[in-house]
């Protein structure tokens, strides 16, 4: 059954979508794992990047169609063997209205994605969920549907506060709704590698979350990652390869942490 991971932080613009997409990409094409990327953000940035990278010119499917039908099967884009994705469209902004109109029970509202993913989890090794950086029905459904959360920490104070708030809200979901997920780790994203602010925030994160929970691999601010938003993900030159190698390292460390969780059920205290 696929291990489901939500990539989160309650601060926008910290690189969540790029990490979700690139982790899915490397797991699929480098590690040959079967991966499903679920775009739970109505802006659909993850969907656009994946489609552009795979040469898909038009997306005619939407996660909201699956939510309305009560079945996500027909919403999955399956243009290759290893990486599938469920795209989001702007219409998905109506999710809250849909949930409140169709479910009187709050628990059913926040576990609807979990219910829809259950029949297809056995088809995948890993499922990644990209969410908007808000306290919302989107984040509630993502948390309730996931086994783990990968927290993205950009090296700035507001991002650290957003990560701390995310963990507190996660605990709220565990305490009040029996959410069954844990933090697999905190992945640092640096604005200026070697900068004093970046180093300071990174050290604070180790104090807050525990040194063993902060990834040793650090995502540096690579211009090539920005250019892929326009061109799609490429592998044409050494700059492309450097960016791919960085996320291969991220995935390697992620898989190591997941194995530790699966073996022990928790981090060593």
UniProtKB/TrEMBL annotation:
Start and end of every AAA domain?
Answer: 4-182
Q: Identify the CDD domains for this entry.
A: ParAB_family
* Entries under InterPro entries matching the protein: AAA_dom, DNA_Partitioning_ATPase, P-loop_NTPase
Annotated protein name in UniProt: AAA family ATPase
Q: Which species is this UniProt entry from?
A: Savagea serpentis
């Amino acid at each position: 059954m696929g291990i489901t991971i939500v990539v989160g932080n309650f601060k926008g613009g910290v690189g969540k979508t790029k990490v979700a997409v690139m982790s899915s990409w490397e797991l699929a094409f480098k590690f040959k794992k079967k991966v499903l990327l679920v775009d739970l953000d109505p802006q659909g940035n993850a969907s656009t990047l994946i489609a552009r990278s795979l040469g898909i010119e038009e997306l005619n499917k939407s996660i909201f169609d699956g939510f309305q039908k009560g079945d996500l099967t027909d919403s999955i884009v399956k243009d290759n063997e290893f990486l599938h994705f469920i795209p989001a469209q702007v219409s998905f902004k109506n999710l809250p209205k849909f949930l409140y109109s169709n479910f009187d029970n709050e628990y059913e509202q926040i576990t609807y994605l979990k219910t829809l993913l259950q029949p297809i989890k056995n088809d995948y090794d890993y499922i990644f969920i990209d969410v908007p950086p808000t306290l919302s029905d989107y984040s509630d459904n993502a948390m309730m549907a996931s086994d783990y959360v990968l927290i993205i920490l950009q090296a700035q104070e507001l991002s650290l506060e957003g990560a701390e708030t995310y963990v507190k809200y996660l605990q709220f979901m565990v305490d009040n709704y029996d959410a069954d997920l844990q933090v697999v780790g905190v992945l640092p994203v640096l604005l200026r590698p070697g900068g004093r602010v970046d180093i300071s925030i990174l050290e604070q994160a180790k104090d807050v979350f525990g040194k063993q929970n902060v990834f040793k691999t650090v995502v540096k601010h690579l211009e090539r990652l920005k250019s892929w938003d326009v061109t799609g993900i490429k592998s044409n030159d050494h700059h492309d390869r450097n960016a791919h190698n960085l996320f291969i390292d991220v995935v390697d460390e992620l898989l190591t942490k997941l194995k530790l969780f699966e073996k022990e059920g928790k981090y060593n205290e």
